[in-house]
Amino acid sequence: MNPESVLPALLGLAWLLPLASFAIIVLLGRRLGKEGVLASYVATSAILSGFVLSAIAMLVWLGSAPAPEEHHEDESHASSTVDAPLVVRAQDAGEEHAAPVDAEHDDHAAEHGEEDHHAGHHAEPPRSYSGDWYLLGEFGDLRISIGYYVDALTVTMFCMVTFIATCIHFYAVGYMHDELHDVDDHEVTLEDGGHLHRRGRFHRFFQYLSLFCFSMLGIVIAGNIAMVFVFWELVGVCSYFLIGFYFERHSASCAANKAFIVNRVGDFGMIIGLMALWGSLGTFSFGDWTDSEGNQQAGIFSQVRPEENEYQLRTPDGMVRAAASEEVAQIVAETGDLEASETAIAEQIPEWRDGPEHYGYALLVIAGLGIFCGCVGKSAQFPLHVWLPDAMEGPTPVSALVHSATMVAAGVYLVGRFFPVFTPEVLLAIAYIGAITLFIAATIAIVATDIKRVLAYSTVSQLGYMMLALGIGGWVAGMFHLITHAFFKSLLFMGSGSVIHACHTNEMTKMGGLRHKMPWTAYTMLVGCLAIIGAGIPFVIGFSGYYSKDAIIEQALSFTNENPAHRILFLAAAGGAAITAFYMFRLWFMTFAGPPRDERVYEHAHESPKVMYLPLVVLSVFAIGVGWQLPGLPSLAGNTGLLEQARPAGTLANVEGGAWLPELTIPDEHLSHVKEIKIPATLIAFSTALGGVFFAAVFYGWRLLDPEDARRQFFPVHRFLLHKWWFDELYEIIFIRPAHVVARLAAGVDKNAFDRLIDGTATFVRGVSDQVDRSIDRPVVDGLANKLAQWTYSLGLGLRVAQTGSIRQYVMFIVVGTAALFLLVSFFWNPTWAGN
Amino acid sequence: MSPLFLLSFVIFAPAVGALLLAFFPKEKGDAIKIFTLLVTLVTFLATLYMALPADGDAESGKFSFAEENVAEIQNVVSLPWIDTTAFRMDYLLGVDGVSFPLVLLTTFISLLSMGASWNIEKHVKAYCILFLLLETGILGVFLSLDLFLFYVFWEVMLLPMYFLIGIWGGPRREYAAIKFFLYTLVGGVMMLIAVLMLYFASDIRELTPDQLAAAQVELPEQETDSPVHTFNILALQQLGQHTGQFSHELLAGKSLQWWAFLLLFLGFVIKVPSVPVHTWLPDAHVEAPTPISMILAGVLLKLGGYGIIRLCYPICPEAGYQLAWFVCLLGVVSMVYGAFAALAQKDFKRLVAYSSVSHMGYVVLGMGVWSATAGNLYDADAWKMGMNGAMFQMIAHGISSAGMFFMVGIVYDRVHHRNLDEFGGLFGRMPVFSGIAVGIFFAGMGLPGLCGFIGEVFVTLSVWTYSKALAVITASVVILTAAYILWTLQRVYLGPAYKGPHGEALTPITPRELAIAAPLLAMAIVFGVYPMAVFNYMAPAVNRTVDDMAAWAQRTQAGAPAPETANITPPVSLAAMETPSLRDTDQNMQD
Predict the structure, then answer these.
(1) What are the structural domain ranges in chain A?
(2) pTM given for the model
(3) Interface ipTM
(4) Chain A closest-CA separation from residue B547 CA (Å)
């Protein structure tokens, strides 16, 4: 079995099945069974088959792993530092690890140096398979295609997405059951005061869900950044449809618009990044590819991290050349011959690149920041985070799938995928954006009372964590948290959906004590809460979040040790952990613990049907165990884990600053797992989380303190948080209104300037013509003609006198006339006239 | 079928149909419509036949994908038409990848908009006759290779359009029709001046035998001392690129070709239309009946873009090089301005009209991004992408804008108003229609998987190499486009209930309407998913045009002495003129 052809085929099929399901449901719609009930079968079986195919692909991937090379690290280090055979090229200059934690580590590092001395030439990029399915367009050497790039990350993401999507499809069958018959939408009040009564739209929900799965998997399998962008937009539009599923509600259609337009703002940056890449590298392909003439062409990754530079980041030739276009033009002008200039330029490139001006480095930074802009939009990072909480207008399964587990994580995924291209400066920006986001969102989540909005802000906050992790060099940590978060956050959302289904309200102020009514939901959600706060017995075992969050905090600590100036990043991560624990348990206590706050709601509450809570159980199993190292299976994270197999080449080393920020050090991720960092990080994470839970219990569990008091005490802060830091209002003032003003201005200019001008010209021309008509045409031209006529007339009149009727007089005229003629003729006579 | 027959048939079948219609009794409205529909169908089928691969049969009239033909003008028809001592015009027709997709688009949209004309009840016979004459005019412009013939068809097309708006239009139809007529006439006059300037400056005796052959032109039998002028577009292209005949100074320190380019470009850009000469478009669209709006947006606007790529650049490369900034600026300004203006509209149809201004800005921009400069070693790949993107955008916009206007028409037919604030809730009332409409509007918005995306993204990506500032502005338009389209969708289709008058008339889409809307959506999807369906025809010819320009730039600008006359120009074949592919060497060095 050849993974090179089998994997793309399997994953490609898994990718296309939801598209087929979408097509079937679009065409048949309501005709699929009674009121389209079969649509759910079609969609669910498509995504389930997709999961099976992904799982097979995972087995193929694991089964086809190359035999471990003979460069095992010394076993004694395996637990603390590097032991991944696939990433033996750890540090190429161990001695340079400027600030290792202590002397013991110095030894490790020195040994690494030695190790790498002979391991260096085994350095190779992670195993990946890439290729094209078909072309979208080809212009000279530029080509844009639909293709695939399969590595361990792709396979893992496929399994995660299809698995969670399958769970949510099952769940949605129960949740959307009401849509199978006519629906009274109580949130829509018509003009006559009644509520909207409409036909159910069960099939349409699954139609969008299928399209979404297709688009999401498209992002994951994409072989080039342009294809990512294509599916990026498609998930955006699916999100638009799903948020606007209850499009009769004004809030829903506004939220859908907001989501799409805010995402487009991010895409605007992404397009700039794409242009910077395209205009200088001439390819969008991640991996290398073979052109039609059989030449090997370098993809983005190998242009940015070429093998001859030991996979370390350097400004690619194309960018240097593009930035130095004036110098290039000068060379062309001097040599006058393209071939010769080409050689001259090639010689100059290293000088341009490494010279004080760092030609092309700015382009590389723009490309990185641009792509990251897209991720900021999609992953709802500050300052574009405003759309995600509003997106909760969609049905809850959508929130669970699209707006927590998969689509919003796509931004993080793309940062991870594009990691090799980011310069240290860009990484720092990513880290700061992540830290700001995680803090802002966490603070807002403290005061939100809508159960879904708490989860939404929690999602934003967790995505901030992932961004932070990636920005400070924790590639595996970020990706790992992406996976674990997907499980526990979709679990939490589905749990909240189950609660909403039972209570018919989103307000936690009306809930309480529900664990007696719906134990399955309550305890699976408790698992979700414990997972998200990273609960565990330190150094022994924990929920999945324990591993991933600790990995992030470890890396943050390691980063802070290297760069004390950026200590705030670590503080944000640690503080955020405490706030997370607080608001998550606030949510759980308010919903499930204590006496009911609203008896009527409590009376009506009931456990959801099996089809809804079974997925919860399945997901909570994963939320607990997805981070575990099970015998016989590779773990997800860790230095030998699955994700490590996808680590971009050359990123496992201390990166000593970029061209613009030379002091910055991005520490090697594996160094964050040494005891000296792991122990304090774990303890900090544990104690902060415990503190958060404790305070939540004080306020909401044991109700020792009244949150109302705190609210009064911190009234301004509370109001500030309740208004979500006034972001919506701010954007309304600085973006939306000005845009409308400019729009009206443009329309006004059209009407009042251009059209006035045109109409004025027309009026003017007509005026001139009128004037001509009146002053020249009529008096002069017409006048002349009339005068002529008049003269003729009067002549006639005058001549009438001669018309007497008398024969004698006429004869007289004839005689006189003839005589006069003869006289004239004889006067002018020319003999030749006679023909002589 | 010989090219002579086939091409003439495509152009004149509608005209003959119009002639036959004259014998139909006036009161047989349905028969007249059916006959007209059949004529447009036959014309469409004829162009579809032309799209089949020729497989080496040069006389079949089909499209040849053979390597030596695919980028060139093919199926050339050349007959003497007017031959006096002062003027020589030929009946010179031909297709290539640039014109052929537009021809196909024309017949396709004509067929569909004739289908959309079914509820025209006023003066049906006159309507149909004018409709068919209009189609002949448009097809004639796309197919003629003689500049004079081109001009004649250009003007032929004008009059039917004037009457179609002026008689069958809305309340302000006279105003709109006259505005349209005058604008286009001004453009036509500018064009005529440029045409005559070029004609009297041309002298084909300077061309080498190879160039003469490429231009499908022959020298007169006996040698003459006086210059041999030509209207032949291909010959003018050869003259413009390989001789200095149009380079002498004419006025204000600018060369003849600078002025010719400017006049031609302004003439075409009025048609496109670009800001600030676009104000005829919203009025014309608002007043025109639905099918005429479809033709106007779907096809007529493309004549401008076609003229730029066919005449402006190849005939006046130097001027194009100097004026690239102007072309690009006009494109970007149109995109931004049109999008903002669309955002402020209250009239549904006016909004769609402004979206056309914005979308056609991409076309002008993509054509202008002259990337073949010394700074990147005359690598024209980015420009190729821009030009191809622009051409694709014309096709895509032809589909999506015709669709959008039809969507507006469907609603207008039912409720007789277009006030955006008085819609809402159509999704609940007309689900199938709304689904199609959302698809078509998304195609206009440039959603991937639909046709609008390809053109927009290719143009946008190509701009960076030309100017980073313009590129950033270009990229920002995606936000505005999303804003006005989504806001429109929200106001019209979403919401709980319809807010305007005649709500009871909101009946589901009829089969006839579906038969028109569905193909448009289907084509939008096909072109969006598999753009090579268009590029296979289009790209070689467009790339050749760009390669010619790049080769010209390299010859004249790269420090090498610029060829003054044909005598020192080596007789290069087009294939040999291709710019050496520099990125290849780049890559190889890396490997």
Answers:
(1) 89-122, 423-722, 729-803, 811-836
(2) 0.88
(3) 0.88
(4) 10
